């Protein structure tokens, strides 16, 4: 793989600036007037505009996907084909996590039968964590891409190779998903139920 270092550095700085300023909408700012499917899709694409124009997929979110979330009871049904604040809040959480977690895992994270008050608190907490995670991610990318960005790295993960940065990003993503899923499997369980698990290292 061949990459232009100046181009990669410029793109990384641009995305860093975008993520540094990005946040999910506040609960009160989510419309609660009853939107039709087409309006919801336009709104969600606006709220979840993570990708620069050259990486966007035209079908970032579809009516079929939303109908599927309703059918699988990942979110509540619309009211007379209209979507309100509670529906949009569920969709914001689902769509911002769907590339990291499977639908069954999402179902354990976000119960579909939350009251409006419970969902409001859940969403507010999620939005705060989402913001903190974005800032943490920026710091990690700056460290991993230290050589690309021409600043001093402080650990072994720092690299000047875009190929190495891609590899590291992909591996970290996989480990992060595994950690989230493993921790979710422990919900409601005790150490006695799970038992002490001895980690065995391969023999030399």
Question: What can you see in these coordinates?
Answer:
- The protein has helices at residues 5-21, 37-47, 63-71, 85-97, 103-109, 116-144, 162-185, 191-194.
- It has 204 residues and is mainly alpha-helical.
- The protein has one domain (5-185).
- The longest helix is centred in the middle third of the chain and has 29 residues, at 116-144.
Reconstruct the topology from this structure.
Elements: H1 5-21, H2 37-47, H3 63-71, H4 85-97, H5 103-109, H6 116-144, H7 162-185, H8 191-194
Helix pairs in contact: 4-6
Gyration radius, in Å? 20 Å
Count of helical regions: 8
Number of separate strands: 0
Reading the helices and strands in chain order gives: HHHHHHHH
Oligomeric assembly: single chain
Q: Give the integer mean of the pLDDT values.
A: 87
Largest sheet: none
Strand content: under 5%
Uncertain spans, ≥5 residues at pLDDT below 50? none
* Envelope shape: globular
